[in-house]
Amino acid sequence: MNSINDYFNKYTFLPPIAYGALRGICVNTLLHPLETIRTRQFLSKKSLNIYKASAEIFLENGLKGFYKGYTPSLKRLLWKQIWVWPIITNLPIYLSQKTKLNPYRSLLITGLCLASLDSLLKGYEEARIQAISKSPTMTIEKKFSYGLGTHWSKLSINWCSFLMSQKYFKEKQLQANVDNTLSMPQLLLIGLKVGAFTSFISAPFEVANAWKLGLRKQLPLSLSYACLKQLCNGLPLSTTKLVIHNIASVILLDFLNKK
After folding, report:
1. What is the pLDDT of residues 153-194, one digit of tens each?
2. In 44-139, which residue ranges form alpha helices assigned H by DSSP?
3. Are the C-beta atoms of residues 81 and 17 closer than 8 Å to each other?
4. What structural domains does the chain harbor?
């Protein structure tokens, strides 16, 4: 019994869940309109830029159209916070102490674990949407298994690059600080750097995942301008979302590490 109490005293679970849920509410409220626009771009049979997709949504439902599906989206995001943040805050510490791995290797393994869980949960949802909208003759299970490998690769890059780069940029900034603490402007700058780095690294996987899932199969695979434009449709919004997510995550992770 004492060993169980020691374990829960050593590794924190409730604060990451509670603050992660609060982060989820704030970020989802901010980013849901962008996700609505991105979804409209993907589901449209014609090529739509951000402005045209936004105009279509506004003309159909007004401002409330941008928050269509907000509640289901929030539920999925809150569920994700429940398991993501306890892993992020506890698994690297556990690996470093039990296996004597250096911090970066511990973060790498943590990122791969998160990517595996995330790809199984999120990949099925994406496959369901795309099977219905793009390939009605293909079952959800087949669509899911077809894109799982590429989806896992993309998430592995996202998670590993986020965890490792935020540690690197924090350490560099702390070395320059006299008081060994990070101010909010510094955290925002670190989050921006991490988001930009992660977006740059993951962009090819974002495009490859879109291609493999069949989002752009109406175009022959080539290096033509039309093909590249169609493949990259929605990429600016994905990049913006990823940067904002990374900024919020850097701030929350720094806060939780001080608890």
Report:
1. 888 888 999 999 999 999 999 988 877 788 999 999 999 999
2. 50-61, 70-99, 103-133
3. yes
4. 2-257 (1.50.40.10)
